[in-house]
Amino acid sequence: MYETFLFIHSWLRWIVLVLAVLVIIKSFLGWQLKQKYGRSDNALSASFVGSLHLQLLIGLVLYFFLSPITTNAFQDFGGAMKAASIRYWAVEHIFVMILAVIVAQIGRSRSKKVSSSKKKFKTVTVFYLIALLLMLSRIPFHEAGRMFR
Q: Cα dihedral sign for 54, 63, 4, 93?
């Protein structure tokens, strides 16, 4: 069960990242070229945030129920904080990822309240870019190499 959830979580990150890059580029161009914010823009934004929420849900299941790393960390949290690799999974990864989801959700919510297309695109660009940078700072890309071996 753990391996299945970890596999899905690992592969879903690529979908999340592709959607993030697409929506940021499209929004930046829409903002700079003064385009109209349309249904496809809204759908792309919703897809990105929805995939982020799914990724978070799978991550939370791993974190609280399935991961042997966090299970062991919870048994001796003080000791876990002294080991950088355990601290990364027990605190840093989950904290920054939750923060990224919050930032993206705030951006989505704010953009829906704005009537101007230019402001919608700008809001999406800024908030989603911040969320993407947060995610990139805590994605274990070194783990991706193992998936292809």
A: positive
